[in-house]
Specification:
alpha/beta; 4 domains; 9 strands; Rossmann fold; 5-stranded parallel beta sheet; 9% strand; 471 residues; GMP Synthetase, Chain A, domain 3
C-alpha cells in the first residue's frame, strides 16, 4: 500500500479533521501518522502501539466515515506500526475494554470504550457506538431541533416529513441524525435504514451510471424503510444527481418513509439547489441549531467528561466554556486534547494545565474573527460607514446594526464586554450586555426583519453575516 498522494490525501485528511476536530486531529494525526488507501481498506501508519490503541479506540468510526465520504466506498480499517511487516486489521475489532490502560506516571486513566450494540442495532459502516438522542445536551440553542428529532422517531414521519436540520459545522447535526437512526432501529429491529452522506449518494449514482446498474441503485434507496442523508447541500450545482434524488425523495414520501436531511444552511439559501428540491424540503419541518450559549457549553463539557469517566474541576469547565464558543465539536476537541495532555504528561488536570494545554487553541480561535472583521461585515451589509456605526446616533437604522455587531463580537471574537463597548464608540460594558440579550431575544422569538430587504428574520441577517465572517 502506498501513502496517499496529492488531492486525495488532502481530501482524506481534511475529512478526518472535520470529524474529529482540529485540536484532536493535530494531536493524534500529525507528523508520524500516515493514511493510505487501497481497493479494500484504509491503512493508518502509526509510530507505536500506544498510538494504535488510542486511535483505534477513539477514532475508528471517524476514519471509516471519512474514507467513505472521499471514495464513496465502505473500507476496512487496518493499522501499521512503522517497522512491523504486516498491518493489523482494526476496522471490525472493538477497542479493548475492562482493565485500565496506563502509561507510567500518568494520573488520568483511559476510560474503557463503552459497550457496542450488536450489528442489528448499529448504523451501517459504523465502527463506534451510535450517538443517541438521550445523550444530546439541550439548551435554548437546540431544544426545538431535539424535540423535532424525537417527534420524527415517535411518529416515523407521520407528523411531518422530511425533517431538515441545518446549522454550521460542529453544532450537532450529525449527532441528531445518528440519534434518530439509532432510535428508529431500536423501535423497529430489522428496519431497512440507509444513512449516507450526499457525497456518498452522488458517488454511488455516478458509479451506477458508469456500470449500467441504475436499476439496482434505485431499488436499494426506494425500498428503504427510512433515509438519512447528511450534508444535502453537497448536491448543489449537480443537476443530474439532484434530479435522481428528487425522484427517490418523491417515491419515499409517497410511501410514507421518514426522511431526515442535514445541511449547512436553510434550504432556500443553498445556492444552485433546484427549486423543486428546495420546495419539497420545505414541505416538512426545517429546524436550525445555533451555537451553544454559555450554560449549554458548560453542560456539554460536563456531559462529555462524565462519558469519559474523568472528573473535570468546575473552574476548568468554566474556562473552556468561556473561551471556546463557536461549536460543540470545538468544545469536545478541547476537552479531549486536555485529557490527552494530562495523560501523556502525567500532570494534574487543573486550571493551570488547561491554560497551558489550550493556550494555542484559544489564541487561534480568538484571532479567527477580530472586532474589525465584524465591523466590516456589518457595515458592508447595511451600507453604512464605520464612523457612523460607532457614532451617538439613535436612529433604528444605526442602533439595529450596532446591536447585531455587538452580539456577533461577543459570540465570535472572544473579546470582553468592556473591550467591545470601547471599540464601538466608547460605550460601557452594560450597553453590550443589553445588546446581546436583545438580539438573543429576537432570535428566540423569531423576530421578523423590517429594516433590511431580502431577509425574512433577524436570524437570517445574522446567518448572512456569519457566513461573511466564515464563522
Amino acid at each position: 500500500m502506498t501513502q496517499l498522494q496529492g488531492g486525495l490525501e488532502t481530501s482524506l485528511r481534511a475529512a478526518v479533521a472535520e470529524r474529529v476536530g482540529e485540536g484532536r486531529f493535530g494531536l493524534w494525526f500529525g507528523e508520524g501518522v500516515h493514511l493510505g488507501l487501497d481497493d479494500e481498506s484504509i491503512e493508518v501508519g502509526v509510530p507505536n502501539a500506544f498510538f494504535r490503541e488510542w486511535i483505534q479506540g477513539h477514532f475508528s468510526g471517524n476514519l471509516i466515515e471519512a474514507a467513505e465520504a472521499v471514495t464513496g466506498r465502505t473500507l476496512a480499517l487496518k493499522f501499521r506500526i512503522d517497522g512491523e511487516a504486516e498491518p493489523k486489521v482494526g476496522g471490525l475489532i472493538e477497542p479493548n475494554s475492562g482493565d485500565e490502560r496506563r502509561k507510567p506516571g500518568v494520573t488520568v486513566p483511559l476510560v474503557p470504550a463503552p459497550k457496542v450494540p450488536p450489528p442489528s442495532e448499529r448504523p451501517r459502516n459504523q465502527a463506534r457506538p451510535p450517538r443517541r438522542l438521550d445523550d444530546f445536551v439541550t439548551g435554548s440553542c437546540n431544544r426545538l431541533a431535539h424535540a423535532a428529532a424525537k417527534e420524527m422517531v415517535q411518529s416515523t414521519g407521520a407528523s411531518f416529513n422530511p425533517l431538515v436540520i441545518h446549522a454550521g459545522i460542529g453544532l450537532g447535526k450529525t449527532h441528531l441524525a445518528e440519534g434518530i437512526g439509532h432510535a428508529l432501529r431500536s423501535r423497529q429491529p430489522g428496519l431497512k435504514l440507509i444513512h449516507i452522506t450526499a457525497e456518498g449518494f452522488t458517488n454511488g449514482f455516478l458509479e451506477a451510471m458508469r456500470s449500467n446498474s441504475l436499476h439496482s441503485f434505485r431499488a436499494r434507496y426506494r425500498n428503504a424503510d427510512a433515509l438519512i442523508v447528511d450534508d444535502i447541500h453537497f448536491l448543489a450545482a449537480k443537476r443530474a444527481t439532484q434530479d435522481e434524488f428528487l425522484h427517490t425523495f418523491n417515491a419515499l414520501i409517497a410511501d410514507g418513509v421518514p426522511i431526515i436531511l442535514t445541511a449547512d444552511q436553510h434550504p432556500k439559501r443553498i445556492a444552485k439547489l433546484t427549486d423543486e428540491l428546495a420546495t419539497r424540503f420545505l414541505g416538512g419541518m426545517v429546524v436550525k441549531l445555533d451555537a451553544p450559549d454559555p450554560t449549554t457549553r458548560r453542560a456539554i463539557l460536563k456531559s462529555k467528561a462524565q462519558a469519559r469517566g474523568v472528573d473535570i474541576p468546575e473552574a476548568v469547565l468554566e474556562y473552556i466554556a468561556e473561551h471556546l464558543r463557536a461549536s460543540v465539536r470545538e468544545l469536545e476537541g478541547a476537552l479531549h486534547s486536555l485529557i490527552a495532555h494530562a495523560l501523556l504528561t502525567g500532570k494534574r488536570l487543573d486550571l493551570n494545565l488547561a491554560k497551558s494545554a489550550l493556550r494555542d487553541t484559544i489564541r487561534h480561535t480568538a484571532q479567527a474573527v477580530a472586532l474589525r472583521d465584524v465591523e466590516r461585515a456589518v457595515c458592508h451589509l447595511f451600507e453604512i460607514d464605520a464612523e457612523v456605526l460607532k457614532s451617538d446616533g439613535r436612529a433604528r437604522a444605526l442602533t439595529f446594526p450596532r446591536m447585531l455587531a455587538m452580539y456577533l463580537c461577543r459570540k465570535h471574537t472572544g473579546a470582553a464586554y468592556s473591550e467591545i463597548g470601547r471599540f464601538f464608540g466608547g460605550r460601557n460594558h452594560s450597553t453590550v450586555i443589553s445588546a446581546e440579550k436583545k438580539v438573543a431575544g429576537w432570535i428566540r422569538d423569531e423576530e421578523r426583519n423590517g429594516l433590511l430587504a431580502g431577509f425574512e428574520t433577524v436570524a437570517d441577517i445574522l446567518a448572512a453575516l456569519e457566513r461573511t465572517l466564515g464563522a
